[in-house]
Amino acid sequence: MSDPVLIDRTLLRTLPLPAHDGEVDKDARGRALIVGGCREMPGALLLSGVAALRAGAGKLQLATAARIAQALAMAIPETFVIGLAEDDVGAVAASAGAVLAERVAHCDALLIGPGLAAGDAAAALAVNLLKGADAVAVILDAAPLAGIARVEARLQTLTQPAILTPHAGEMASMMAIDRAEVLADPIAMATRAARRFNAIIVLKGSTTIVAAPDGRLFHYHGGGVGLATSGSGDTLAGLATGFAARGAEPLSAAVWAVFVHGEAGRRLGRRIGRVGFLAREILDEVPGVIGAIEA
Fold this sequence. Notes:
Order of helices and strands: EHEHEHEHHEHEHHEHHHEEEHHH
Strand order of the largest sheet: 1-10-9-8-7-6-5-2-3-4
Shape: globular
CATH class: Alpha Beta
């Protein structure tokens, strides 16, 4: 196993984002579709959606439980919001995947997970959504990772690797091992998962590991402890979705998301404090971080 490559500005300049200059319109910057949220966690979808826009996606669609759809539409006026059928606990019903089939087929990046209630319904919803995701960049976060076995075979057949964004506990669940084993050797664990699921693994932690199915490895350390806060992971997943919607290859989208997320945290830690800044404050830092890299 080779040593991981450091994720820094030098690396990102070898993986440039698609150029959007001159007379490019919003369609050329890609369409992101994010499916998630429930009555208890509507904010997760808000954070992911705004992050996708901040990363440069041209169009954003959010699909969520019908009861919270209108509030999200008001909170993010730049998005198109689809209200989905709910089950008896207010979570998005598994059958909602069929309603979204046409939208999945016509989006550029699909994120499933932020704010979805954990359980069988989330896994079943992911199964339904991935049926039509042949030419789509797929990102899975949070609840669907617990039921990854349900979509493992489908991940092998996607035209490009999906991006999976587990923390150590979710990785342990995905690999059916103890969390301590993940923490003991996160590089080996991310490498194994990348090969098993044919996916880009973003194993989140104080040092984040990015592993590709072909064995390439990357690491990032330096965002600061302040990023260990509610909603931070939703923001990271949204950034990866936005970069993928713009046309970045999955590995590039993941690496850019990790660095931009971390650098935003570093800036906030310097300006606000080592801990105590909020996940939503990361969002305003994103365009400046991207601009500084591209300059």
